[in-house]
Amino acid sequence: MHIKMDEEVKKRIRSKGNQLTVQLLEVQGCCAPTVQELVVSSFKPKKMQQYQEFIVEDISVYVQKPLLMNEKLTLQMKGFGLFKTISAKVQ
Question: Residue 29 pLDDT > 80, yes or no?
Fold first, then answer.
């Protein structure tokens, strides 16, 4: 898996402890199709057997194993001002 991130993302991750977790969140409803969304958190996962660790420079990125079949993970900043967050996209 190739992980792509720019310097702004790296700076944010370093300020939060040099680790980032990307996991898949599935929301199921009775009357709507299942929605899948990627969730980015700045902590080390508790159940490490469900994640694969990737080291990018000095940053640990933990990716949930169902996402490993994808070839590329892009991390980028979204939002503006105080509302900037890191978002993830797989391709």
Answer: no
- pTM for the predicted model, two decimal places: 0.85
Distances (CA, A) of 74 to 27, 37, 40, 49, 81: 22, 14, 12, 23, 21
How long, in residues, is the chain?
Answer: 91
Strand order through the sheet with 35-41: 35-41, 19-27, 59-64, 51-56
Predicted pLDDT at 26:
81
Helix/strand/coil for 81 = helix
Q: What is the per-residue DSSP string for 7-28?
A: HHHHHHHHHTTSEEEEEEEEE-
